[in-house]
Amino acid sequence: MGKPPSCQSMKAEIDPAEVAFFTELQRILSRGRILLPGNLSRICAVDAAYSGDLVVAVASLFEDGTPAETSTYIGRCTFPYVSGLFFLREGPFAVEAISGLKSKPQLVCFDAHGEAHPRLAGMATICGMVLGMPSVGIAKSLLVGKVVQAREGLDEITHGGRRAGFRVRTDGMTRYWSPGYSVDLSQLESVICTHGSLCLRAMADSDRVAREELRAATSPQP
């Protein structure tokens, strides 16, 4: 049996974003909840693209419905994908990208789950808490629970005998929305009805820029 890696060698392999992320997790218990503003003007979405252990996370901020700025963080992911613990893999880099924005978002949208999660707290919840910013999860697939038809275009996700979010179908696209940090179900429904299309635009923008930045980072240099 080989010798275990030294603490020094393990520390050298961890990305700074991961260190900052897990350090902040230790502080959040003393932080109060943040109120979601009634009049949202700054909405941010964040997504990431991967090539091996290289990860490019991009936060796209829209202000008054218009693209305002983007922030990119490029790092090395040391955690493998584990079902139910996605926040360990992508969370640190998403948080760093959002933290790099000059203007503070009032709401952050994650390509992940919030309450619609086996432990009722997916990446959207954890990252929103670390950031101290209201957050929602907007996922492409259902992780837990079942969908109950409610009304056209807005169905309910139930899990463990409680409502955990909504399934929204618009323009041939299906997304699963759930509350993250400091957002309840009634507020989430209001966000979907008043800012849903803008949230999806921001999500698409962050995904596009992340892919572009990843191609640039991995292209052979002349």
CATH topology, anyone?
archaeoglobus fulgidus dsm 4304 fold
Number of helices: 5
Q: Note the gap between the termini.
A: 44 Å
C-alpha geometry: globular
Strand content: 25-35%
Describe the secondary-structure layout:
Layout: H1 7-13, H2 16-25, E1 42-51, E2 54-63, E3 66-76, H3 86-99, E4 107-110, H4 123-131, E5 135-139, E6 146-151, E7 154-159, E8 162-170, E9 173-179, H5 185-218
Helix pairs in contact: 2-3, 3-4
Keywords:
archaeoglobus fulgidus dsm 4304 fold, 5 helices, alpha+beta, 222 residues
What does this molecule look like?
It is a single chain. The protein contains five helices and nine strands; from the N terminus they run H-H-E-E-E-H-E-H-E-E-E-E-E-H. By secondary structure, it is an alpha+beta fold. It has one domain: archaeoglobus fulgidus dsm 4304 fold, CATH 3.30.2170. The longest helix is centred in the last third of the chain and has 34 residues, at 185-218. The chain is globular and about 55 Å long.
Brief account:
By secondary structure, this protein is of the alpha+beta class. The protein contains five helices and nine strands, in the order H-H-E-E-E-H-E-H-E-E-E-E-E-H.
